[in-house]
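Pinned message: reference record for Probable fructose-bisphosphate aldolase class 1
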Amino acid sequence: MKTDELINTATALMAGDKGLLAMDESTGTCNKRFEEAGIPTTIEYRRAYRELIVTTPNFGDCISGAILYDETIYQSTKKGVLFIDALKKAGIIPGIKVDEGTVNMANFPGEKITEGLDGLRQRLEKYYDLGARFAKWRAVITIGEDTPTKANIEANMHLLARYAALCQENGIVPIVEPEVLMDGDHNLKKCQKVTEKALKMLFKQLEKQRVDLRGLILKPNMILPGTKSEKQASVDKVAKATVGTLLKCVPPSVPGIAFLSGGQSPELASAHLNAMHVKYKGKLPWALTFSFARAIQEPAMNAWKGLDKNVKVAQKLLYKRASLDNAARRGEYTP
Ligand code: 13P
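Predicted structure (tokens):
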């Protein structure tokens, strides 16, 4: 195993006050977001949008790594520079989403399982040759009346561990993402209990598969009440519940934790990260940062509207959101 390389990549991804940008929306998800923003859902618009992101001036000041998707890893700017090369030139480490999305889990109504292990070893070799140095796999845990089941959590975490082992074999740092969804009317306590179960099972499975925790990054959800819950929680309560759960479940040998935003507004996602740093400054065994998609991209996508004349404004908004998340990582964010 290329242990030193893995540790170096993980350390670089967590450096300073930087964080990750998830720009790995599948074609379906990207089109859905485009439709909501009134942008045509063609391959050329998706390419143009990703060009806007990777050419954002000085983006490497704020972003340590960007997660691409299979479609985008082969794409180039209008001038013919591969996105992956544009990122490297900006000092941003290229990563790649390698799961193939979720499907219904047989015999477990309402629960999802992630696909993508078949042929993964070969895909990872190819992505490494192209320049990707880290990867992402997302598992989805759904809170409902009778869910999640233990079987669903176990199957999803087993897959995450098998994926992580294959990544490390190929010199690629695995981001392991067990996302407990915000959908539903459950309260914060329920989210906390389910997240704790998922994380405990995840680290059990990682150990079984002999994954080296020093060369891995965890991408969890924050602990939040469901979006339809009548009782929303204060920023401080979310920060305390989230860090408390992570301290219980995540071994100190893990170098970094980078949150997904999960549908929170950009402002709230930043405020939560900020509160965690204000409250726990100097007391955490791992680096704590962001790996947001929507919470960084949303204002920029809405401003772009698919029009060339809006590119500069959209890039400014991307930079602004990312630098506000840097401030949050320093505990210095003000909305
Ligand atoms: P959001 O920040 O929009 O939740 O996306 C993060 C991500 O990468 C989901 O897999």
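Pinned by admin. Summary line: The mean pLDDT is 98.
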